[in-house]
Amino acid sequence: MTQETETPLPDNEQPPIQIMVIPVTAFQQNCALVWDSKTKAGAVIDPGGDVPTILKAIEEQGVKVEKIVLTHGHIDHVGGAADLAAELGVPVEGPHEADRMLIERVADQARQFGVSEAKPVEPDRWLVDGDTMDMAGRTFQVLHCPGHAPGHVVFFEPELRFAFSGDVLFAGSIGRTDLPGADHATLIASIKEKLLPLGDDISFLPGHGPASTFGHERETNPFLR
């Protein structure tokens, strides 16, 4: 299942980047295909599974995928990364190395949640707070935001005023903290100290559910009051 895109605009009216949300697996995780509107160079963020569906979207959009990017090591975000990387012949970047154990035990996660077996993936580049990561013709800032997962990272593009938040912050909710390596106080600190100070105008796409803005969540999210 893929989210329908609108009729393409003329080149001079295209936004700097295009984003297609591809809900994957029973978790309906927001795998994102993101690309430069002019060059079609792009990346896949958090391919949690359903690799044939992701490949079909890449082909239909004509995207030249240059890398796979991971926000954290939970199965619904990394479950298809190894197979997709092998199919496309591209590197994998992220998350923070604190999630190495989660990724190495992705098959155990599959059994725990009763989903298809998944393969671990070895990132070509682990990310740390303060790194930058080039994607879809833009340079994203890397923010290490633990709490939901020890090595969770968020990708923020200051010029576009946009972030991929993974499972740190959702519209009306926050990431689970009842999983191994999670901690509620740490997650709240990540949100309040790393994300919200970026500005109320920042739009973000979470790992599940609809997009929102930091300002809207600051004002209405019950977990942030």
UniProtKB/TrEMBL annotation:
- Give all residue intervals belonging to the Metallo-beta-lactamase domain: 28-208
Q: Does the keyword NADP apply?
A: no
Required cofactor(s):
Zn(2+)
* Pfam families attached to this UniProt entry: Lactamase_B
Give the molecular function GO annotations.
Answer: hydrolase activity; metal ion binding
Entry-linked Gene3D superfamilies: Ribonuclease Z/Hydroxyacylglutathione hydrolase-like
Instruction: Please name the SUPFAM superfamilies in this protein's record.
Output: Metallo-hydrolase/oxidoreductase
Q: Using the record for this protein, list the coiled-coil segments as residue ranges, or answer none.
A: none
Keywords from the UniProt entry: Hydrolase, Metal-binding, Zinc
Q: Which domain of life is it from?
A: Bacteria
The record, for PANTHER family, names:
HYDROXYACYLGLUTATHIONE HYDROLASE GLOC (PTHR46233)
The protein, known as: MBL fold metallo-hydrolase
Origin species, per record, is: Roseibium aggregatum
